[in-house]
Specification:
- By secondary structure, this protein is an alpha/beta fold.
- The protein has two domains: 240 residues, Type I PLP-dependent aspartate aminotransferase-like (Major domain) (Aspartate Aminotransferase, domain 2, 3-Layer(aba) Sandwich); 133 residues, Aspartate Aminotransferase, domain 1, CATH 3.90.1150.
- 36% of the residues lie in helices and 14% in strands.
- It contains 14 helices and twelve strands.
- Strands 1-7-6-5-4-2-3 form a seven-stranded mixed beta sheet, sandwiched between helices. The protein has a five-stranded mixed beta sheet with strand order 8-9-12-11-10.
- Strand 2, helix 4 and strand 3 form a beta-alpha-beta unit.
- The longest helix has 20 residues.
- The chain is globular.
- The termini are far apart.
- The structure holds pyridoxal-5'-phosphate (PLP).
- The site of pyridoxal-5'-phosphate has 16 residues, from helix 3 and helix 4.
Length: 380
């Protein structure tokens, strides 16, 4: 089945009890049993819920995996992945992470004896040198947030496999429409479905898709044991959003391509971070592992101050100033004071995340209106 068909049909059957074409919202906490232990596969809604099961089956198909587990948020999904580890285990990752992912590792899991090693995952020697017997997980995010640099998923996953290390790719920015990490060798794929998958800025939900059955079983065990499950209404909204994922992401990518080119030539703009440029960081890898370059981009100003950035951030009208991304509407944000405020300034600057860096989540509006909005805010 092709992707465009999967988003609408994979794992989705008419409701067996009524024939309802849309997956019903099973808003129930428990299920009646005929006799003790004799039930229809559903006992208690933390453990199983039919709306959630359909979403998990659909996501499994979209990422070419074998299983999936949904959670109350992207970070709850990540929390479950990190709970696969034990005290003494080590993680390898980079500073170029979603701020909340960095916080969860360093402020919560470090307390439980998990060591987190931050390196440049593009540096093959540094990666090889960092791997040791205790390394149990490599956490990959690509394109990275907010610098939009690209990591070579295939290379990292192949190396990890040789050392029996689990790899997890946060695929939130790319979406399964643009990139399928399991096909590139990853063991786990994480999504903040809050963003492109649900796609309408009205849900908080997370998911992990697994490449093998055993990891799926372990994650479902944690899902039930720790209990950070999403409600059925949110699962329904995510399923509804996914049906148009390919249309939304394609349009957003087309818009972003034009906006990136416009910003690159603007006299007030210093650097534009967008993986689609031929001279962008790891452009060739992006070309190989992604179907398009995504709809996220960042740029800095020649006048590299927070004040210059603030002036623009408060002037755009169609680009709303807000955290988050991946909805139908365009958003503009200031990572240094918003999404990445929890990362120390020294580390921020070391990856190029300066005070004037502005991040755009390009939506699906008409591109001419979006350009007009940016022109008015930037002046010229
Ligand atoms: C938003 C986001 C998360 C966290 O997801 P929530 O649903 O907000 O918990 C993780 N990774 C990336 C890349 C994100 O953008």
């Amino acid at each position: 089945m092709k992707f465009e068909t999967k988003v609408i049909h994979a794992g989705i059957e008419p409701d067996p009890s009524t024939g309802a074409i849309m997956t019903p919202i099973y808003q129930t906490s428990t299920y009646v049993q005929e006799a003790p232990g004799k039930h229809k596969g559903y006992e208690y809604a933390r453990t199983q819920n039919p709306t959630r099961s359909v979403l998990e089956a659909n996501l499994t198909a979209l990422e070419n995996g074998v299983d999936a587990a949904c959670f109350a948020s992207g970070l709850a999904a990540m929390d479950a992945v990190l709970k696969l580890l034990s005290p003494g285990d080590e993680i390898i990752t980079t500073y170029e992470l979603y701020g909340g992912s960095y916080r969860l590792m360093t402020q919560i899991f470090a307390k439980y004896g998990i060591k987190i090693n931050f390196i440049d995952l593009n540096d093959k020697t540094a990666l090889k040198n960092q791997i040791n017997d205790k390394t149990k997980l490599i956490w990959i995010e690509t394109p990275t947030n907010p610098m939009l640099s690209i990591l070579d998923v295939k290379y990292i996953c192949n190396l990890a496999k040789k050392h029996n290390i689990i790899t997890c790719v946060d695929n939130t920015f790319a979406t399964p429409y643009l990139q399928n990490p399991i096909d590139l060798g990853a063991d786990l794929v994480l999504h903040s479905a809050t963003k492109y998958l649900a796609g309408h800025s009205d849900v908080i939900l997370g998911a992990v898709i697994t490449a093998d059955k055993e990891l799926g079983e372990r994650l479902h065990y944690i899902q039930n044991a720790s209990g950070a499950v999403p409600g059925p209404q949110d699962c329904f909204l995510t399923l509804r959003g996914i049906k148009t994922l390919h249309l939304r992401v394609q349009r957003a990518c087309d818009n972003a391509l034009e906006i990136a080119a416009y910003l690159k030539n603007h006299k007030k703009v210093d650097k534009v971070y967008y993986p689609g440029f031929k001279d962008a960081h790891n452009h060739q890898v992006a070309k190989r592992q992604m179907k398009h370059y995504g709809a996220m981009l960042s740029f800095t100003l020649k006048s590299d101050t927070k004040r210059s950035a603030s002036r623009i951030l408060s002037k755009t009208k169609l680009f709303s100033l807000a955290e988050s991304l991946g909805g139908v509407e365009s958003l503009i944000g200031h990572p240094a004071s918003m999404t990445h405020a929890s990362i120390p300034k020294k580390e921020r600057l070391s990856i190029g995340l300066t005070d004037s860096l502005i991040r755009l989540s390009v939506g699906v509006e008409h591109v001419e209106d979006l350009m007009e909005d940016l022109k008015a805010a930037l002046g010229g």
